[in-house]
Automatic annotation (TrEMBL):
Gene encoding the protein: KIF23
Annotated keywords: ATP-binding, Cell cycle, Cell division, Coiled coil, Cytoplasm, Cytoskeleton, Isopeptide bond, Membrane, Metal-binding, Microtubule, Mitosis, Motor protein, Nucleotide-binding, Nucleus, Phosphoprotein, Transmembrane, Transmembrane helix, Ubl conjugation, Zinc
Record protein name field: Kinesin-like protein KIF23
Record-level Gene Ontology MF annotations: ATP binding; ATP hydrolysis activity; metal ion binding; microtubule binding; microtubule motor activity
First-listed, main subcellular location of the protein, grouped into a coarse class: cytoplasm
Biased composition (Basic and acidic residues): 1104-1122, 1146-1156
Physiological role: Component of the centralspindlin complex that serves as a microtubule-dependent and Rho-mediated signaling required for the myosin contractile ring formation during the cell cycle cytokinesis. Essential for cytokinesis in Rho-mediated signaling. Required for the localization of ECT2 to the central spindle. Plus-end-directed motor enzyme that moves antiparallel microtubules in vitro.
Binding site for Zn(2+): 102, 254, 258
Length: 1292
């Protein structure tokens, strides 16, 4: 059987703007439909279906009328009919072209425009045809052959051409200026109609004044009314404008517009034909006959001009600059399934990834997840394909979407890959088993292998599966048993996170488990055995110790960013902080607090290999807690206020003079006033941060841990039934590492913000989940437990939704904002970074149920994937510049020291003059103490002459050296020029080679991106098919199970019905046998009576004897009947039996003969006799247990006053409960009557005939003395209705 698949329909948000209609929401066809799809859509209910048929059917009707007109008129001889022929042709053309335009308008954007170009041209041709018909038949007689009449048709031709041009041009500014386009198009159609209708309006005006009686005038009025109604509907878009979405398929304005237009054309045609018939003679007499060129010729000329105009506009449409074509591009997806990502440009053509060169437009209907997918995909994956001005731009269709698009189009901190190419890693989940306590004897957790743990229910705990014990195993990335040290745990879990932190990548590490499972111990450690936090700090400072920047070179701002200050600003900041009375920055020279000195005394000296030596680093730490879903800063410095009461660590006010607070702990000096809660915000990189959180710059492990310990003392802890020091809040210790490269000289830090990298490592100690029925929490402890459990439940919900979205391709909203905990770490799961979780388990049996829930959550968390962080961008400077600069300084100092110049610690800024003066001979003493001294001056003159000669020698040597150096420079310059030319030639060759390689690389990258995109589409398609396959398999399994259940129910019902049929069959077979036997016995008795009567009659008639025939005993007859009831026998004379007692048919079985004491003895001859019977007056269970038959003797008074005895018989069965039950099967009725029958009258002539005695004895049935009736259940009167009577003996 041939079946056609109709095209799929879209809504307004899934098609480009050029295809949209005002007020129409649904029923749009695909904007890239094929011709076959367009034809199929004619038979499908779309928003264009009635538009097509409301013009196609009238076109066929008008064509039929035209053919009828051609058949009726002699066109060759009747020139007067040529204008009507031209008009009728245009009436057929315009609805047919309109129907075709609406049919094929969704093949592409260009096709849509061109189709409507032809539609507008056909309408202008129709207006010209109307003008030709009006000129020939409708013109008032006063205007015939006037100047206006002669210029009327040529003006109509010009109006038709102008209408086509204006209407076609109106489609170009439709998107940018829709109102101007609408006005222009309305004017293009209204003006030709108004001009063509001037003769008609004049006739209507004259008719209204003169009260004419022309029959055609009402039809003209109807035509005008429908024409103006058509214009009104076209311009107002009623009724869909008032109720968008309610008239999408039937009743919208364009359908009404078509109907009104066709109705107006019909009335116009009727009126023209009536005018032609009624005014034929008068017009012929006053107006010359129209020629072929004035009718059909003008129509043909206008048609050719319209085709030229349409061709020009179509060419302009295809020759539009590429930038204008790209103005509207949309990414669309289906409603139920994700379709392969396509792009629809203005032309409606679907361009795949390798063809996209436009600006991306997102619709309001796209969800946020699809938006981000499209945005990041086109911004990055096609960054090479899109122009620079178009890459990363988003054009929205409304202001709300524009704001969202602007926020998403911000430049990320580091380049992000396309979602299809992003490498993802699953969340690393590790398990650590706490050692069992001394008081705990039973454990429920066993370590099976390095990656598997096993949970088994404790004694007395049963799982609801057949009441049996159920052991479950859970697999993790690695399992750490009770003997694993903190260092081993750190090397596997935390060390990779520290390495990523120094390389500029984010990380998150949190501990999860029930209360008392060792989470805080794992994170903090104990004296002598530091936990993960101090080891992370030690590894960081061991790695970046020699490369740390001075304090306050890096300065954090209040928007989660970092700036670089110059050395002067950093020095001023240090001096200002040192001058403060209370330093906010810990001093590294202070003595370590012995309370935590053992925790940070790590002797491992672990460090990161291959640290960037050309960068400077600075570490900032902050410490917050999330208490009752509020964020508090544990490092906040709150000034002491003597007016406000102090609060201890349990959030209870402390009275003056108390030595113990309400928590029964000694009062500490650092008891504090509760800080104000903080607010979360999102920075420009979409990372969450806490506003106003204290961030301290630290320079060593001691300083960092001192800050941590200061906040740790302020953390809220309390004593519960399960844990002596139970954490009542989630704590988050954040380590931020700012790093920036040195400049080219290796001296100063680059202050360009783009070169600064800020990475973060968050160490989270989650509060343990707990049950209030175990902790016995009350008051504030109960509220704290509720908030802890609620936040953990929100974390679990977020993980479940993330897992579902990633596994099944859904786009459910992840409820991060339901809890401050999940909201704070939103960017780790949605953005990029490495996430690790340590599941701490307490193996004691009391925590089995809680541990089971923790294991299930951990197993689910492993299936969530997080984007792999990308490497930080390279700065492009020469590596090793720090040590090169230091080596240069050391070498310079060494050479200066060897030449006697300044050494380290002395001034190095000596002038050249001082160096020359040191080489000159020293001057002698110039003191003249005696006027007759003639030696001092000569010595001075001699010294000065020597200095002069030395100076001249040095000058000459300097000039020689200068000349030599100049010649050397010239020679060197010549060599350098030649080498430079050679190097430039080589460089040009290399550049050409590099350019060729770059082009090849770009081509390969584009090809790679295209292939990756196609792979991504195939993967998504495969995921969709796998999901459908999984769904179908589930449906198949459920239906198979249902069929199996139905089959089993059917088999059980068949077995039950078969048993009932067998039971009923056997029962009715027995009943039928009994009834047949009783009927046979009755018939045999009747036959025997008749035989005996016949014998007696024969004896009387043939052989009369004096003696009476001997009458057989009725007891024999009854015994014979009893035997026949079991097995009928043809023997007429059975052996004689005892006549005193009636033998029961149940003889031979053991009976319970129940005779109540109220029974009256009847003293009849025939009495029921049951052998082997136990006679009881009251039925008892003991008697029933010994027998298998039961008989009850019941007496009642009959209607005739006689006593009626019933023998009720039944079978005894054992019940499941051990008792006895009786099922009644038979009822025998014994009745005794008094002799009330009449005697047979004898003849008076023979008062004592001896032969009549026997006959009367046998024939007087009314004189029977007794009747015994045996009746069984299952018949109306009893199947064996038998008469047993003793013949009444006459008295002699």
């Amino acid at each position: 059987m041939l079946s056609l698949k109709l095209p799929r329909l879209l809504n307004i948000n899934q098609v480009p703007k050029v295809f949209r209609e005002q007020g129409i929401v649904f029923g749009y066809r695909h904007p890239r439909s094929s011709a076959a799809d367009c034809l199929l859509s004619v038979f499908q209910m779309t928003n264009e279906t009635l538009n097509i048929w409301t013009h196609f059917v009238p076109a066929c009707y008008f064509l039929g009328k035209l053919l009828a007109l051609l058949y009726a008129l002699d066109l060759c001889n009747d020139v007067y009919a040529w204008p009507l022929l031209a008009y009728m042709s245009t009436c057929c053309i315009y609805p047919f072209m309109s129907s075709c335009a609406h049919t094929f308008s969704t093949m592409s954007t260009q096709a849509r425009h061109i189709c409507y170009f032809f539609d507008y041209g056909s309408l202008s041709i129709y207006s010209l045809g109307s003008a030709v018909a009006y000129s020939a038949y409708v013109f008032p007689e006063e205007w015939v052959d006037s100047t206006f009449h002669r210029c009327y048709v040529p003006t109509a031709v010009f109006n038709a051409v102008l209408s086509t041009g204006l209407s076609c041009y109106s489609r170009f500014p439709e998107l940018e200026q829709p109102r101007f386009s609408k006005v222009l198009r309305t004017l293009a159609f209204a003006y030709p109609y108004l001009f063509d209708s001037i003769p008609l309006f004049y006739r209507l005006y004259l008719c209204a004044e003169d009260s004419c009686t022309e029959g055609v005038i009402p039809i003209h009025i109807q035509h005008v009314v429908f024409a103006f109604l058509t214009c009104f509907i076209f311009t107002t878009h009623l009724p869909e404008r008032l109720a968008p979405g309610h008239f999408d398929y039937i009743g919208h304005s364009h359908q009404v517009f078509h109907v009104c237009g066709i109705a107006g054309t019909y009335f116009q045609m009727e009126a023209i034909m009536m005018d032609m018939a009624s005014r034929h003679e008068r017009l012929r007499a006053s107006f010359p006959l129209p020629t072929l060129s004035q009718t059909v010729g003008l129509i043909g000329v206008c048609l050719v001009i319209n085709l030229v105009i349409i061709g020009a506009f179509s060419k302009a449409l295809y020759s539009t600059p590429e930038s204008s074509k790209r103005e509207k591009t949309t990414c669309w997806c289906s409603e139920d399934k994700w379709m392969p990502l396509v792009v629809l440009n203005t032309n409606g053509e679907i361009a795949y990834a390798e063809e996209v060169t436009g600006v991306l437009v997102t619709e309001r209907a796209l969800s946020a997840a699809v938006y981000e997918l499209c945005g990041f995909f086109f911004n990055y994956a096609f960054s090479e394909l899109l122009p620079e001005h178009a890459s990363g731009q988003f054009v929205e269709l409304n202001s709300t979407a524009a704001v969202a698009g602007e926020s998403r189009a911000r430049t990320p901190r580091r380049p992000k890959a396309a979602p299809g190419n992003v490498l993802k890693d699953p969340v690393g989940v590790y398990c650590r088993v706490r050692p069992l306590g001394e008081q705990d004897a039973e454990r429920c957790v066993e370590v099976v292998s390095d990656t598997t743990v096993q949970l088994h229910p404790p004694d007395g705990y049963r799982v609801f599966r057949n009441g049996e014990y159920k052991e479950t195993q859970y697999t993790f990335k690695e399992v750490f048993g009770t003997l694993v040290t903190q260092k081993q745990l750190f090397d596997v879990v935390a060390k990779p996170l520290v390495e990523d932190l120094i390389r500029g990548k984010n990380g998150l590490l949190f501990t999860y488990g029930v209360t008392g499972s060792g989470k805080t111990h794992t994170m903090t450690g104990s004296p002598g055995d530091g936990g993960l936090l101090p080891r992370c700090l030690d590894m960081i400072f061991n790695s970046i110790g020699p490369f740390q920047a001075k304090r306050f070179v890096f300065k954090l701002d209040d928007k989660n960013g970092v700036d670089v200050q110059c050395e002067v600003d950093a020095l001023l900041e240090r001096q200002r902080r040192e001058a403060m009375p209370v330093q906010k920055t810990p001093c590294g020279k202070r003595q370590i607090d012995p309370e935590f000195a053992d925790m940070i005394n790590v002797q491992d000296h672990c460090k990161v290999e291959e640290v960037d030596e050309d960068s400077v680093y600075s570490v900032f730490v902050s410490y917050i807690e999330i208490y009752n879903n509020y964020i508090y800063d544990l490092l906040e410095e709150i000034p002491y206020d003597p007016i406000k009461p102090k609060w201890n660590s349990c959030n209870t006010p402390m009275r003056k003079g108390d030595k113990w607070n309400s928590c029964s702990t000694p009062v500490r000096i650092d008891d504090f006033i509760p800080p104000q809660s903080r607010v979360l915000r999102e920075d420009q990189n979409r990372n969450m941060y806490v506003i106003g959180c204290t961030e301290v710059e630290v320079k060593s492990t001691d300083e960092a841990f001192e800050v941590f310990w200061k906040g740790q003392k302020r953390r809220r802890i309390a004593n519960t039934q399960l844990n002596r020091e139970s954490s009542r809040s989630h704590s988050v210790f954040m380590i931020k590492l700012a790093q920036a490269p040195l400049d080219a000289d290796g001296d100063n830090v680059l202050q360009e913000k783009e070169q600064i990298t800020l990475s973060q490592l968050s160490l989270v100690d989650l509060a343990g989940s707990e049950r209030t029925n175990r902790t016995k929490a009350e008051g504030s402890r109960l509220r704290e437990a509720g908030n802890i459990n609620q936040s953990l439940m929100t974390l679990r919900t977020c993980i479940e939704v993330l897992r579902e979205n990633q596994m099944y391709g859904t786009y459910k909203m992840v409820p991060y904002r339901d809890s401050k905990l999940t909201h704070l770490f939103k960017n780790y799961f949605d953005g990029e970074g490495k996430v690790r979780m340590i599941v701490c388990v307490n193996p004691k049996a009391e925590d089995y149920e809680e541990s089971l829930q923790v294991m299930r959550f951990a197993e689910m968390t492993q299936e969530v994937e997080v984007a792999r962080p990308v490497d930080k961008p390279l700065c492009g400077l020469t590596p090793g510049r720090r040590f090169k600069n230091q080596a240069f300084k050391d070498e310079l100092s060494r050479k200066l020291e060897a030449r006697g110049g300044p050494v380290i610690g002395e001034t190095e800024d000596q002038s050249v003059t001082e160096m020359f003066l040191q080489n000159f001979p020293p001057l002698p003493s110039c003191e003249l103490l005696d006027i007759n001294d003639d030696q001092t001056l000569p010595r001075l003159i001699d010294a000065l002459e020597k200095r002069h000669r030395a100076r001249q020698m040095l000058s000459e040597e300097f000039a020689k050296n200068a000349l030599a150096f100049k010649s050397m420079l010239q020679e060197f310059d010549t060599k350098m020029v030649s080498k430079e030319n050679f190097a430039q030639g080589k460089l040009a060759e290399k550049e050409k080679a590099i350019a060729g390689q770059k082009m090849e690389i770009e081509r390969l990258e584009k090809k790679n991106k295209t292939l990756e995109y196609k792979i991504d589409i195939l993967e998504k398609t495969a995921t969709i098919y796998e999901e459908e396959k999984r769904t179908l398999q589930q449906e198949l399994e459920s239906k198979s199970q249902k069929l199996q259940r139905q089959a089993s129910d059917k088999r059980r019902l068949e077995a039950r019905l078969q048993g009932m049929v067998v039971e009923t069959t056997s029962k009715w077979e027995k009943e039928c046998e009994r009834r047949v036997a009783a009927k046979q016995l009755e018939m045999q008795n009747k036959l025997w009576v008749k035989d005996e009567k016949l014998k007696q009659l024969k004896a009387i008639v043939t052989e009369p004897k004096p003696e009476k025939p001997e009458r057989p005993s009725r007891e024999k007859d009854r015994e014979k009947g009893l035997q026949r009831s079991v097995s009928p026998s043809p023997v007429p004379n059975p052996p004689p039996v005892r006549l005193r007692h009636r033998r029961s048919r149940s003889a031979g079985e053991r009976w319970v003969d129940h005779k109540p004491s109220s029974n009256v003895p009847t003293e009849t001859v025939m009495q029921p006799h049951v052998p082997n019977a136990i006679t009881v007056a009251t039925a008892s269970e003991k008697a029933l247990a010994k027998c298998d038959k039961y008989m009850l003797t019941h007496q009642e008074l009959a209607s005739d006053g006689e006593i009626e005895t019933k023998l009720i018989k039944g079978d005894v069965f054992k019940t499941r409960g051990g008792g006895q039950a009786v099922q009644f099967t038979d009822i025998e009725t014994l009745k005794q009557e008094s002799p009330t029958g009449r005697k047979r009258r004898s003849s008076q002539s023979s008062p004592n005939p001896p032969e009549d005695g026997a006959e009367s004895e046998w024939t007087d049935v009314e004189t029977r003395c007794s009747v015994a009736v045996e009746m069984r259940a299952g018949s109306n009167l009893g199947p064996g209705y038998q008469h047993h009577a003793q013949p009444k003996r006459r008295k002699p």
